[in-house]
Amino acid sequence: MSDTFICPKCGSEFTYEQDNLQVCSQCFYEWDPNEARTEDQILDANGNVLQNGDSVVVVKDLPVKGAPKPVKAGTKVKNIRLRPDSDHNIDCKIDGFGSMALKSEFVKKA
Predict the structure, then answer these.
(1) What are the residue ranges in the chain where pLDDT is below 70?
(2) Is the pTM of this model over 0.70?
């Protein structure tokens, strides 16, 4: 049997090869194992690599502690700053909410 690959998105060991790509049978994420992915890269909900200064869109309503309303899905956030050492790895400013930290799994690249 060939080398087994661990899914970089969900951590599953149940992956298989299809058309020069590895595919996770649990979350259906596809990636090229030949592309070197560094550990400090931050991915959005769709698996795109995020960079400082990117614009992102929130993909689901996010409740904010102490605020009467959530950050609505579809809210566009401009000029993000990445923090790879934190659980909430995106720093940003959202109109009506101010500065806050978001998790990259709840945004997609705009």
Answers:
(1) 1-3, 36-40
(2) no
Could you tell me if 90 and 56 are in contact, meaning their C-beta atoms sit under 8 angstroms apart?
Answer: yes
Neighbours of 81 (CB within 10 A): 13
One-letter amino acid at 51 equals Q
Bridge partners, residue 16, by sequence? 23
pLDDT value at residue 55: 96
Q: Tell me, what amino acid is at 23?
A: V
Spatial separation of the C-alpha atoms in residues 44 and 106, rounded to whole Å: 7
Residue from 80, 42, 74, 48 nearest 59 by CA:
74
Token digits for 50?
Answer: 């995020």
Helix, strand, or coil (residue 106): helix
| Angle ∠(35,50,92) on CA atoms, nearest 5 | 165
